[in-house]
Amino acid sequence: MQLTSSNGDRLGADNVVILVSDGYSDVQEGETASATAAERLKAAGVTVYTVAVSDSSNLMELNAVNSDPDPEHLYELGLETAVQQTADLLLDQLCQ
């Protein structure tokens, strides 16, 4: 894992990963690989946010990746949605 002190991790600082996705996992790796990697991160105390940039996403798959509760850690950015509005929501959540 990259979130270690030898890679710049700071003691006492929250570890956060933001996954920006088109809403579907890679065809070759499949959703199991994504969920397994996310579970390892979450087990290590990392908070995982998902940002879906798509007009139709696999919400079940994304919710398996992001931290709980799902509504606080999943952001859907439709192709017509204002990028600034979504960025503001995400930054508000991260800076609480």
What do these coordinates show?
- The protein has 96 residues and is an alpha/beta fold.
- It has a single domain, classed as Rossmann fold (3-Layer(aba) Sandwich).
- Helices cover 39% and strands 18% of the residues.
- The chain is built from four helices and three strands; from the N terminus they run βαβααβα.
- The chain has helices spanning 30-43, 59-65, 70-73, 83-94, and strands at residues 16-21, 47-53, 74-77.
- Strands 1-2-3 form a three-stranded parallel sheet, with helices on both faces.
- The radius of gyration is 14 Å and the shape is globular.
- The two termini are 26 Å apart.
- The model has no long low-confidence stretch (mean pLDDT 81).
What's the quick description here?
The chain has about 100 residues and is of the alpha/beta class. Helix content is about 40%, strand content about 20%.
Largest sheet: 3 strands, parallel
CATH-assigned homologous superfamily:
von Willebrand factor, type A domain
Following the backbone from N to C, one meets helices and strands in this order, namely: EHEHHEH
Q: What is the overall number of helices?
A: 4
